Amino acid sequence: MDKIVPGDVVIGISSSGVHSNGYSLIRKLIEVKGLSLSSKAPFDESQTLGQALLMPTKIYVKALLPAIKKNLVKAIAHITGGGLTENIPRVLPATHGVVLDANKWTLHPVFNWLVAEGRMSASELLRTFNCGLGMVLIVGEDKKDDVLEIIQNSGEEPTVIGNVKLINEGEPQVDVKNLKLPLLHPIKTRRKVGVLISGSGTNLQALIDYTQNPCNQSSAEIVLVLSNIPDVEGLKRAERANIPTRVLSHKGLKRVEFDRAVTKILQEAGVELICLAGFMRIVSAEFVKTWQGKILNVHPALLPAFKGMDAHKQVLEMGARITGCTVHLVEPEVDAGAIIEQAAVRVEVGDTVETLQERVKVLEHQIFPKALELLASGKISRGEDGKLIWHE
Ligand code: GRF
């Protein structure tokens, strides 16, 4: 330790993720956000939260031993609990500190998520997590190139991240420059959404995934899923996402009676906006009036073409070469409300209702959450004439 002098070089080696630190906070965050280890990682959709968070801690012995044996390294700090701010000072004389340039390494995306959702300050992050660096070495300026080369030979990508400096009494020993963290959004009140379904609920799933992903900071929160058919897959999807469900059979009820009962259930749950996501019923004019400008529907065609049932069949019969999907406001006339989002797909020779439906649904899952977000965030509203008003 006594060999460390100002001007020495600080070398960092990347971590594979959070390693084994900060899990009390991470567990709490998962609980509060209603996530589970099998949820998609909000910061990396290619893996589950479990896969990302349980990524094994990197072991650095093989990478470091050759340089240590050659006596090229002055000090090593393993960045564990205590992060950069508490671990690096353990190898420094009290009179010395390090200045690190965060532009020189990559902050693993998991840390951006932790900051945004845990509403963590930079100093909290730096004293709890490795911030993307699992190991930090201090070497003399003259040994820097040798050490970098030896570690590179092990397959690691060491980076010079800063220097040692003398510090005044009371000055922090770790000074991290250029740490760019996500801006913390003000906590917003979310519009409560009820989703009405009758079946498989793949659109519901897309809405759940979008609104529950903390990275999206969605203005919408699904508070209830109601189905007119019992035991459908969509209800299971809601249950898995911890969203309350209701089943209300339409059998034996007049349309208006059923719709009034639905309105009562939705109002009791505090619902402000409704998504019809494969709800195989035509809603009454009274229902539309009660919820005017607050109901969205996804239709599997490019409206105003191919309204009503069997849209894909109509498309194929017509020989249309382009179709798609539409999310629109619901008006008393079926499939006639203001269009909010659309996406198109080519009809291929040999397409069947099933193949078309499959490709169109992929697009439905993209535009439905987008349209809901526009309405929930207040970026759009329904004008008196039924047309959309775009705000800002
Ligand atoms: C979708 O094709 C949608 O366009 C239509 O109903 C279907 C619902 O599918 N309104 P899912 O239940 O969301 O899988």
Description of the structure:
This protein has 392 residues and is an alpha/beta fold. Helices cover 32% and strands 23% of the residues. It has 13 helices and 17 strands. The strands form 4 sheets. Strands 11-10-9-12-13-14-15 form a 7-stranded mixed β-sheet, with helices on both faces. Helix 9 (233-240) links the parallel strand 10 and strand 11. Helix 3 (61-69) packs antiparallel against helix 7 and helix 8 packs parallel to helix 13 (353-376). The model has no long low-confidence stretch (mean pLDDT 94). The protein binds 5-O-phosphono-beta-D-ribofuranosylamine. 5-O-phosphono-beta-D-ribofuranosylamine binds next to helix 8, strand 13 and helix 13.
- Average per-residue pLDDT, rounded, comes to 94
Distance between the first and last residues' Cα: 59 Å
Helix count, DSSP H or I runs of 4 or more residues: 13
Strand order of the largest sheet: 11-10-9-12-13-14-15
Helix/strand/pairing class, anyone? alpha/beta
Distinct small molecules bound, one entry per kind: 5-O-phosphono-beta-D-ribofuranosylamine
Task: Give the % helix.
Answer: 25-40%
Radius of gyration: 28 Å
